[in-house]
Amino acid sequence: MSNDNEKKTTAARRLLQPADWAAPRGYANGVAASGTQVFVAGQIGWNGQCQFESDDFVDQVRQALINIKAVLAEAGAEPRHIARMTWYLVDKREYVARGREVGQAYREVLGSEYGIAMTAVQVAGLIEDRAKVEIEVTAVVPPRD
């Protein structure tokens, strides 16, 4: 494991990075964690009343992340406890083209923790026609001492 990953290792969470692999940018190749698992269903860019406030991609990303943070809080979890994140995108080109804005929205809502095993896939569509992104997470809350 590299020194950078050793800095981010805690007793309940460890980043998995083969020594001879290039370091990933903006995510982790793997995470080992122990504690209470929290599974957050796919969240889309609508508010708590299931209403879209915007059709803009980045606005929907921000709202989906806000929704994730709210569900995590119900379990006593925080963004720092996220171990896995899967993004379902209707348009991967928009995701790539607006990556800087997506990163800014991510940092505004979840902070600068990128030690998360992430996957992003383009899909033909989402159940809600106006949705441009759906994000699901798995978090692990470490045992209390």
From TrEMBL:
A Pfam family it matches: Ribonuc_L-PSP
SUPFAM superfamilies documented for this protein: YjgF-like (SSF55298)
Transmembrane segments: none
InterPro entries documented for this protein: RutC-like_sf, YjgF/YER057c/UK114
Name this protein carries in UniProt: Enamine deaminase RidA
Lineage: Bacteria, Pseudomonadati, Pseudomonadota, Betaproteobacteria, Burkholderiales
